[in-house]
Amino acid sequence: MESTKNSLIPSFLYSSSSSPRSVLLDQVPSSNSNAAFQSTNLEKSPSPKTTMASRKNFLIASPTEPGKGIEMYSRDFYAACTVGGILSCGLTHMAVTPLDLVKCNMQIDPAKYKSISSGFGVLLKEQGVRGFFRGWVPTLLGYSAQGACKFGFYEFFKKYYSDLAGPEFAAKYKTLIYLAGSASAEVIADVALCPFEAVKVRVQTQPGFARGMSDGFPKFVKTEGYGGLYKGLAPLWGRQIPYTMMKFASFETIVEMIYKYAIPNPKHECSKGLQLGVSFAGGYVAGVFCAIVSHPADNLVSFLNNAKGATVGDAVKKIGMVGLFTRGLPLRIVMIGTLTGAQWGLYDAFKVFVGLPTTGGAAPVPAIGEAKA
Predict the structure, then answer these.
(1) Among 32-41, 273-282, 360-369, which range has the highest average pLDDT?
(2) Which string of DSSP letters, residue by residue, matches 276-307?
(3) CA-CA distance, 170 to 370, in Å (whole number)?
(4) What is the pTM of this model?
(5) Which of 274, 292, 301 is CA-nearest to residue 331?
(6) Which parts of 74-209 fold into alpha helices (H)?
(7) What is the membrane topology listed in the Swiss-Prot or TrEMBL record (predicted)?
Protein backbone atom coordinates (compact mmCIF):
# COMPACT_ATOMS: atom_id res chain seq x y z
CA MET A 1 0.00 0.00 0.00
CA GLU A 2 2.79 2.38 0.94
CA SER A 3 4.66 1.81 -2.30
CA THR A 4 1.48 2.48 -4.29
CA LYS A 5 0.90 5.80 -2.57
CA ASN A 6 4.52 6.81 -2.89
CA SER A 7 4.22 6.33 -6.64
CA LEU A 8 1.32 8.81 -6.67
CA ILE A 9 2.52 11.46 -4.24
CA PRO A 10 6.03 12.96 -4.32
CA SER A 11 8.05 12.16 -1.23
CA PHE A 12 8.67 15.86 -0.51
CA LEU A 13 5.00 16.17 0.50
CA TYR A 14 5.74 14.14 3.62
CA SER A 15 7.79 15.08 6.65
CA SER A 16 9.30 12.03 8.31
CA SER A 17 12.02 13.68 10.33
CA SER A 18 9.86 13.77 13.43
CA SER A 19 7.22 11.56 14.93
CA PRO A 20 3.68 12.61 13.96
CA ARG A 21 2.68 11.98 17.53
CA SER A 22 4.75 14.94 18.74
CA VAL A 23 3.03 17.24 21.22
CA LEU A 24 3.80 20.61 22.64
CA LEU A 25 6.08 19.62 25.52
CA ASP A 26 5.54 22.76 27.51
CA GLN A 27 1.88 21.80 27.90
CA VAL A 28 2.53 18.36 29.39
CA PRO A 29 1.71 18.43 33.15
CA SER A 30 4.76 18.26 35.41
CA SER A 31 2.99 16.58 38.33
CA ASN A 32 3.76 13.11 39.61
CA SER A 33 0.81 11.76 37.67
CA ASN A 34 2.94 12.16 34.58
CA ALA A 35 5.44 9.56 35.76
CA ALA A 36 3.45 6.68 34.34
CA PHE A 37 3.43 8.36 30.94
CA GLN A 38 7.18 8.93 31.13
CA SER A 39 7.92 5.35 32.16
CA THR A 40 6.01 3.90 29.24
CA ASN A 41 7.63 6.16 26.68
CA LEU A 42 10.41 4.10 25.10
CA GLU A 43 11.70 6.95 22.97
CA LYS A 44 14.59 9.11 24.15
CA SER A 45 13.83 12.45 25.70
CA PRO A 46 14.01 15.25 23.14
CA SER A 47 16.98 17.55 23.14
CA PRO A 48 16.47 21.24 23.96
CA LYS A 49 16.71 22.01 20.24
CA THR A 50 13.98 19.49 19.44
CA THR A 51 11.83 20.79 22.28
CA MET A 52 12.05 24.33 20.95
CA ALA A 53 11.06 23.18 17.44
CA SER A 54 8.12 21.21 18.80
CA ARG A 55 6.80 24.34 20.52
CA LYS A 56 6.59 26.01 17.13
CA ASN A 57 5.05 23.19 15.14
CA PHE A 58 2.38 20.58 15.48
CA LEU A 59 2.35 17.49 13.28
CA ILE A 60 -0.83 15.93 11.95
CA ALA A 61 -0.49 12.18 11.43
CA SER A 62 -1.63 10.68 8.14
CA PRO A 63 -4.64 8.42 8.77
CA THR A 64 -3.33 5.79 6.35
CA GLU A 65 0.41 5.94 6.95
CA PRO A 66 1.31 5.72 10.65
CA GLY A 67 4.62 7.32 11.41
CA LYS A 68 4.39 9.90 8.63
CA GLY A 69 2.78 13.29 8.52
CA ILE A 70 3.03 16.84 7.22
CA GLU A 71 4.01 19.63 9.56
CA MET A 72 1.34 22.31 9.59
CA TYR A 73 2.38 25.58 7.92
CA SER A 74 5.66 24.14 6.79
CA ARG A 75 7.07 24.20 3.25
CA ASP A 76 5.60 20.73 2.67
CA PHE A 77 2.20 21.91 3.92
CA TYR A 78 2.08 24.73 1.37
CA ALA A 79 3.38 22.39 -1.35
CA ALA A 80 0.53 19.97 -0.60
CA CYS A 81 -2.03 22.80 -0.71
CA THR A 82 -0.59 23.92 -4.05
CA VAL A 83 -0.90 20.43 -5.55
CA GLY A 84 -4.43 20.15 -4.16
CA GLY A 85 -5.31 23.46 -5.81
CA ILE A 86 -3.98 22.26 -9.17
CA LEU A 87 -6.13 19.14 -9.01
CA SER A 88 -9.26 20.85 -7.73
CA CYS A 89 -9.33 23.77 -10.18
CA GLY A 90 -7.75 22.24 -13.28
CA LEU A 91 -9.82 19.05 -13.35
CA THR A 92 -13.16 20.64 -12.43
CA HIS A 93 -12.93 23.48 -14.95
CA MET A 94 -11.97 21.04 -17.67
CA ALA A 95 -14.94 18.83 -16.78
CA VAL A 96 -17.44 21.70 -17.20
CA THR A 97 -15.97 22.90 -20.50
CA PRO A 98 -19.28 22.26 -22.37
CA LEU A 99 -21.19 24.48 -19.90
CA ASP A 100 -18.51 27.14 -20.10
CA LEU A 101 -18.58 26.99 -23.89
CA VAL A 102 -22.34 27.56 -24.05
CA LYS A 103 -22.14 30.29 -21.40
CA CYS A 104 -19.45 32.22 -23.29
CA ASN A 105 -21.39 32.03 -26.55
CA MET A 106 -24.62 33.14 -24.85
CA GLN A 107 -22.72 36.20 -23.58
CA ILE A 108 -21.17 37.01 -26.98
CA ASP A 109 -24.08 36.19 -29.32
CA PRO A 110 -27.41 36.04 -27.42
CA ALA A 111 -29.41 36.28 -30.64
CA LYS A 112 -28.01 32.95 -31.78
CA TYR A 113 -27.60 31.24 -28.40
CA LYS A 114 -30.93 32.17 -26.85
CA SER A 115 -31.01 29.67 -23.98
CA ILE A 116 -29.08 26.82 -22.42
CA SER A 117 -30.94 24.10 -24.32
CA SER A 118 -30.89 25.91 -27.65
CA GLY A 119 -27.22 26.75 -27.12
CA PHE A 120 -26.31 23.09 -26.79
CA GLY A 121 -28.46 22.34 -29.82
CA VAL A 122 -26.70 24.95 -31.96
CA LEU A 123 -23.27 23.66 -30.94
CA LEU A 124 -24.24 20.05 -31.59
CA LYS A 125 -25.63 20.89 -35.03
CA GLU A 126 -22.70 23.05 -36.14
CA GLN A 127 -19.71 21.35 -34.49
CA GLY A 128 -20.80 17.92 -33.34
CA VAL A 129 -20.12 16.29 -29.98
CA ARG A 130 -16.39 17.05 -30.18
CA GLY A 131 -17.24 20.74 -30.34
CA PHE A 132 -18.46 20.65 -26.73
CA PHE A 133 -14.88 20.35 -25.50
CA ARG A 134 -13.32 22.98 -27.72
CA GLY A 135 -10.78 24.90 -25.65
CA TRP A 136 -10.28 22.23 -23.01
CA VAL A 137 -6.46 22.42 -23.12
CA PRO A 138 -6.15 26.15 -22.28
CA THR A 139 -8.87 25.60 -19.71
CA LEU A 140 -6.95 22.78 -18.03
CA LEU A 141 -3.58 24.58 -18.12
CA GLY A 142 -4.92 27.99 -17.14
CA TYR A 143 -7.06 26.90 -14.23
CA SER A 144 -4.41 24.49 -12.97
CA ALA A 145 -2.02 27.44 -12.74
CA GLN A 146 -4.70 29.56 -11.15
CA GLY A 147 -5.63 26.84 -8.65
CA ALA A 148 -2.03 26.36 -7.59
CA CYS A 149 -1.70 30.05 -6.73
CA LYS A 150 -5.23 30.48 -5.41
CA PHE A 151 -5.18 27.71 -2.80
CA GLY A 152 -1.47 27.73 -2.01
CA PHE A 153 -1.25 31.47 -1.45
CA TYR A 154 -4.60 31.57 0.37
CA GLU A 155 -3.28 29.18 3.01
CA PHE A 156 -0.10 31.26 3.22
CA PHE A 157 -1.81 34.65 3.49
CA LYS A 158 -4.45 33.37 5.90
CA LYS A 159 -1.71 32.26 8.29
CA TYR A 160 0.40 35.37 7.64
CA TYR A 161 -2.44 37.80 8.36
CA SER A 162 -3.49 35.77 11.41
CA ASP A 163 0.02 36.06 12.78
CA LEU A 164 0.07 39.82 12.13
CA ALA A 165 -3.26 40.28 13.89
CA GLY A 166 -2.40 38.07 16.86
CA PRO A 167 -4.58 35.30 18.31
CA GLU A 168 -7.22 37.58 19.86
CA PHE A 169 -7.85 39.75 16.81
CA ALA A 170 -7.48 36.84 14.39
CA ALA A 171 -10.37 35.08 16.11
CA LYS A 172 -12.42 38.28 16.45
CA TYR A 173 -11.97 39.40 12.85
CA LYS A 174 -11.64 36.01 11.20
CA THR A 175 -13.90 36.95 8.27
CA LEU A 176 -11.63 39.88 7.43
CA ILE A 177 -8.68 37.45 7.55
CA TYR A 178 -10.45 35.19 5.05
CA LEU A 179 -11.31 38.12 2.76
CA ALA A 180 -7.82 39.62 2.83
CA GLY A 181 -6.08 36.27 2.36
CA SER A 182 -8.25 35.22 -0.57
CA ALA A 183 -8.01 38.61 -2.31
CA SER A 184 -4.21 38.63 -2.02
CA ALA A 185 -3.99 35.11 -3.41
CA GLU A 186 -6.30 35.85 -6.34
CA VAL A 187 -4.28 38.87 -7.48
CA ILE A 188 -1.38 36.49 -8.08
CA ALA A 189 -3.53 33.66 -9.44
CA ASP A 190 -5.10 35.81 -12.16
CA VAL A 191 -1.73 36.83 -13.53
CA ALA A 192 -1.10 33.12 -14.12
CA LEU A 193 -4.57 32.52 -15.58
CA CYS A 194 -5.01 35.55 -17.86
CA PRO A 195 -3.06 34.43 -20.99
CA PHE A 196 -4.79 31.05 -21.04
CA GLU A 197 -8.21 32.64 -20.49
CA ALA A 198 -7.67 34.98 -23.44
CA VAL A 199 -6.85 32.10 -25.79
CA LYS A 200 -9.67 29.93 -24.40
CA VAL A 201 -12.36 32.55 -25.00
CA ARG A 202 -11.12 33.26 -28.52
CA VAL A 203 -11.06 29.55 -29.41
CA GLN A 204 -14.52 28.94 -27.93
CA THR A 205 -16.34 31.95 -29.38
CA GLN A 206 -14.75 32.24 -32.84
CA PRO A 207 -15.11 28.95 -34.75
CA GLY A 208 -12.25 28.52 -37.18
CA PHE A 209 -9.87 30.74 -35.21
CA ALA A 210 -7.90 27.74 -33.91
CA ARG A 211 -8.31 24.14 -32.85
CA GLY A 212 -6.89 24.69 -29.37
CA MET A 213 -3.94 25.92 -27.36
CA SER A 214 -1.10 24.74 -29.60
CA ASP A 215 -2.19 26.76 -32.63
CA GLY A 216 -4.39 29.30 -30.84
CA PHE A 217 -1.64 30.75 -28.65
CA PRO A 218 0.82 31.68 -31.44
CA LYS A 219 -2.02 32.95 -33.63
CA PHE A 220 -3.31 35.14 -30.81
CA VAL A 221 0.17 36.56 -30.15
CA LYS A 222 0.74 37.17 -33.86
CA THR A 223 -2.47 39.19 -34.23
CA GLU A 224 -2.47 41.09 -30.91
CA GLY A 225 1.02 40.73 -29.45
CA TYR A 226 1.98 39.45 -26.03
CA GLY A 227 0.33 42.47 -24.46
CA GLY A 228 -2.98 41.30 -25.86
CA LEU A 229 -2.82 38.23 -23.64
CA TYR A 230 -3.24 40.54 -20.64
CA LYS A 231 -5.82 42.88 -22.16
CA GLY A 232 -8.47 41.26 -20.01
CA LEU A 233 -6.46 41.25 -16.76
CA ALA A 234 -8.28 44.18 -15.13
CA PRO A 235 -11.75 42.75 -15.89
CA LEU A 236 -10.44 39.34 -14.82
CA TRP A 237 -9.41 40.82 -11.47
CA GLY A 238 -12.82 42.47 -11.33
CA ARG A 239 -14.45 39.09 -11.83
CA GLN A 240 -12.16 36.78 -9.91
CA ILE A 241 -11.19 38.81 -6.82
CA PRO A 242 -14.80 39.34 -5.62
CA TYR A 243 -15.54 35.76 -6.67
CA THR A 244 -12.65 34.34 -4.67
CA MET A 245 -13.30 36.55 -1.65
CA MET A 246 -16.87 35.31 -1.60
CA LYS A 247 -15.76 31.75 -2.33
CA PHE A 248 -13.36 31.45 0.58
CA ALA A 249 -15.00 33.68 3.18
CA SER A 250 -18.50 32.27 2.67
CA PHE A 251 -17.16 28.71 2.55
CA GLU A 252 -15.31 29.13 5.84
CA THR A 253 -18.40 30.70 7.45
CA ILE A 254 -20.86 28.14 6.07
CA VAL A 255 -18.69 25.19 7.13
CA GLU A 256 -18.29 26.64 10.62
CA MET A 257 -22.08 27.08 10.89
CA ILE A 258 -22.70 23.51 9.69
CA TYR A 259 -20.44 22.09 12.38
CA LYS A 260 -21.92 24.44 14.98
CA TYR A 261 -25.63 24.04 14.29
CA ALA A 262 -26.24 20.99 12.06
CA ILE A 263 -23.81 18.35 13.35
CA PRO A 264 -23.99 17.29 17.01
CA ASN A 265 -20.35 16.20 17.29
CA PRO A 266 -17.25 18.41 17.10
CA LYS A 267 -15.41 18.39 13.80
CA HIS A 268 -12.47 16.33 15.07
CA GLU A 269 -14.89 13.56 16.12
CA CYS A 270 -16.58 13.37 12.69
CA SER A 271 -15.52 10.80 10.13
CA LYS A 272 -13.43 11.91 7.17
CA GLY A 273 -16.29 11.05 4.83
CA LEU A 274 -18.66 13.34 6.73
CA GLN A 275 -16.09 16.13 6.77
CA LEU A 276 -15.66 15.86 3.00
CA GLY A 277 -19.44 15.94 2.58
CA VAL A 278 -19.53 19.16 4.59
CA SER A 279 -16.78 20.58 2.37
CA PHE A 280 -18.79 19.82 -0.79
CA ALA A 281 -22.04 21.25 0.63
CA GLY A 282 -20.33 24.39 1.89
CA GLY A 283 -18.56 24.81 -1.43
CA TYR A 284 -21.76 24.46 -3.46
CA VAL A 285 -23.64 27.11 -1.47
CA ALA A 286 -20.61 29.40 -1.60
CA GLY A 287 -20.46 28.89 -5.36
CA VAL A 288 -24.00 30.25 -5.83
CA PHE A 289 -23.02 33.47 -4.07
CA CYS A 290 -19.82 33.62 -6.11
CA ALA A 291 -21.66 33.40 -9.42
CA ILE A 292 -24.01 36.26 -8.57
CA VAL A 293 -21.28 38.59 -7.29
CA SER A 294 -18.85 38.05 -10.16
CA HIS A 295 -21.23 37.70 -13.12
CA PRO A 296 -21.08 41.28 -14.52
CA ALA A 297 -17.29 41.10 -14.73
CA ASP A 298 -17.54 37.66 -16.32
CA ASN A 299 -19.62 39.16 -19.13
CA LEU A 300 -16.99 41.88 -19.60
CA VAL A 301 -14.15 39.34 -19.79
CA SER A 302 -15.95 37.31 -22.46
CA PHE A 303 -16.78 40.42 -24.50
CA LEU A 304 -13.28 41.97 -24.36
CA ASN A 305 -11.46 38.75 -25.21
CA ASN A 306 -13.74 38.15 -28.18
CA ALA A 307 -13.82 41.65 -29.74
CA LYS A 308 -10.46 43.00 -30.91
CA GLY A 309 -9.82 46.54 -29.68
CA ALA A 310 -13.02 46.70 -27.64
CA THR A 311 -13.21 48.65 -24.36
CA VAL A 312 -15.25 48.32 -21.18
CA GLY A 313 -17.42 51.20 -22.39
CA ASP A 314 -18.12 49.34 -25.64
CA ALA A 315 -19.14 46.27 -23.65
CA VAL A 316 -21.53 48.19 -21.40
CA LYS A 317 -23.06 49.95 -24.40
CA LYS A 318 -23.48 46.71 -26.34
CA ILE A 319 -24.68 44.45 -23.51
CA GLY A 320 -26.43 47.02 -21.32
CA MET A 321 -26.35 47.29 -17.53
CA VAL A 322 -29.18 44.80 -17.03
CA GLY A 323 -27.55 42.39 -19.45
CA LEU A 324 -24.27 42.55 -17.54
CA PHE A 325 -26.01 41.19 -14.43
CA THR A 326 -28.43 38.74 -16.07
CA ARG A 327 -27.13 37.43 -19.40
CA GLY A 328 -26.12 33.78 -18.90
CA LEU A 329 -26.59 33.99 -15.12
CA PRO A 330 -28.78 30.86 -14.56
CA LEU A 331 -26.31 28.66 -16.38
CA ARG A 332 -23.41 30.23 -14.52
CA ILE A 333 -25.08 29.60 -11.16
CA VAL A 334 -25.46 25.91 -12.00
CA MET A 335 -21.92 25.74 -13.35
CA ILE A 336 -20.19 27.67 -10.57
CA GLY A 337 -22.17 26.03 -7.77
CA THR A 338 -21.26 22.56 -8.98
CA LEU A 339 -17.73 23.65 -9.79
CA THR A 340 -17.05 25.24 -6.40
CA GLY A 341 -18.54 22.33 -4.48
CA ALA A 342 -16.43 19.86 -6.43
CA GLN A 343 -13.32 22.01 -5.98
CA TRP A 344 -13.60 22.11 -2.21
CA GLY A 345 -14.40 18.40 -2.15
CA LEU A 346 -11.34 17.51 -4.23
CA TYR A 347 -9.08 19.93 -2.42
CA ASP A 348 -9.98 18.63 1.02
CA ALA A 349 -9.92 15.01 -0.19
CA PHE A 350 -6.32 15.51 -1.28
CA LYS A 351 -5.47 17.13 2.04
CA VAL A 352 -6.93 14.15 3.90
CA PHE A 353 -5.07 11.78 1.57
CA VAL A 354 -1.70 13.27 2.54
CA GLY A 355 -2.57 13.47 6.24
CA LEU A 356 -3.88 17.03 6.65
CA PRO A 357 -7.17 18.17 8.21
CA THR A 358 -10.01 19.45 6.04
CA THR A 359 -10.51 23.20 5.62
CA GLY A 360 -12.78 25.27 7.82
CA GLY A 361 -14.77 24.68 10.96
CA ALA A 362 -12.60 26.77 13.25
CA ALA A 363 -11.14 30.24 13.62
CA PRO A 364 -7.70 30.97 12.15
CA VAL A 365 -4.87 29.46 14.18
CA PRO A 366 -2.94 31.73 16.55
CA ALA A 367 0.50 33.00 15.69
CA ILE A 368 3.46 30.63 15.66
CA GLY A 369 4.71 30.00 19.18
CA GLU A 370 1.27 30.79 20.67
CA ALA A 371 -0.63 27.84 19.24
CA LYS A 372 -2.29 25.44 21.59
CA ALA A 373 -2.60 21.74 21.06
Answers:
(1) 273-282
(2) HHHHHHHHHHHHHHHHHHHHHHHHHHHHHHHS
(3) 12
(4) 0.72
(5) 292
(6) 75-95, 97-108, 116-127, 136-172, 174-205
(7) Multi-pass membrane protein
